[in-house]
Amino acid sequence: MTTAATGLKVHCHLLPQPVDSDVAVVIDVLRMTTTAAVLFDRGLRELLVVAEVDHARRLAVEHDALLLGERGGVPLEGFSGGNSPREYLDHDLREASAILCTSNGSRAVEAASGASHLLLASIRNAGASARAALSASDGRIDIVCSGTGNRPSLDDVVGAGIVIHELLDLAPDADLDDAARLALLTAAPAGEASRLLRSAQHARTLERLGFAGDIELALERNATNMVPVRRGLEPAIFVGEKGGGR
Amino acid sequence: MTTAATGLKVHCHLLPQPVDSDVAVVIDVLRMTTTAAVLFDRGLRELLVVAEVDHARRLAVEHDALLLGERGGVPLEGFSGGNSPREYLDHDLREASAILCTSNGSRAVEAASGASHLLLASIRNAGASARAALSASDGRIDIVCSGTGNRPSLDDVVGAGIVIHELLDLAPDADLDDAARLALLTAAPAGEASRLLRSAQHARTLERLGFAGDIELALERNATNMVPVRRGLEPAIFVGEKGGGR
Question: What pTM did the predictor assign?
Fold first, then answer.
């Protein structure tokens, strides 16, 4: 892909907000969108993202799908795995469907559901997500951070900053709104982004719960080209697509 | 003031949100809180901050007060001045009362009204505001940015970052939440803060409307020790207090 004058507008939302643009890029670095990228890397066929545990259980039966998720770092009864991306690094998930039950990430997916194209971005697939978002876009991209509860999460803002940094490589003249400019501050230099992400409240919580490895995995920039993109609307079903060449 | 272990928690809100903490620091760099600092520097006795034009007109009669404000950069009929801090630099306002009619700043004051102490901070009085906030605090300070409409404003985030930077000079062990860490990124080095503020959407709008001088005035860090602090609750009445020695 060559760089060109695009007239692209990039809006960033530090918390889930309704968007009705062409392309919404949902970010939940710790951990939903990072885990989603790993699942598709392991061959997953489709992923359903839902907020409620009971809803997740019902969908798992309907779709004959793996049931993944946890609440507050605690595994859920009847679930085959949690939210930790590291759990799935060595799994063979070819042809499998999975339900991922996650509160903050699902809320962001729901808020962004008005967009024509919806994709899940993380630091692991930042470059591929930027390429996929730009090629789907008609002139505007909305980046929607999941946050934690009703508070912005520094890990998501760092993820947004890195995706915006990748977008600017492709569309250097892109017009950024104030929140996008703010997010971009976290992206350079790279060492600073890692330090910031490790200092995020949610990162410190995960570390206390024994998930320090998830943070390192989440920080592996452009480890994959796999981008989860929404196929079905209700429920939100994602499939993995290669986000352009590296 | 000497630095000491304070156990201070600093929360930052990039948009107005209800707070019920000890101390709320409201920030509307372009231009409400900057203008307020200038008005008290010129001798103003009390300032009422309100959102609605008709409400402002009624209060001006009740309080025999100057009526200041504008909508979208356009002066209002019957008002003696606008929102531009530069208008008041040479005015003698000793013993005067004023009503300042402003939409975004008023919304932030309203949102933060549950705090025991409420003060108006800007880059012009950042150091004095930090000292005043810390000495009023029982352990937590909430910084509330006004934003523009429902979007975070980079100018306010830069102001918040500079106030947080000043707070860390006084309380180096303060515990910052994610939004406060993000705001702090904008504060250092100083040249970067100026560039960022000038790039803010609202700064560019003001420049187009002929108010470029307001931006330069808003950027004068620690130009004054004057801190507008709330005295009355309903309506929000502010008086000027010296925020500690320099």
Answer: 0.93
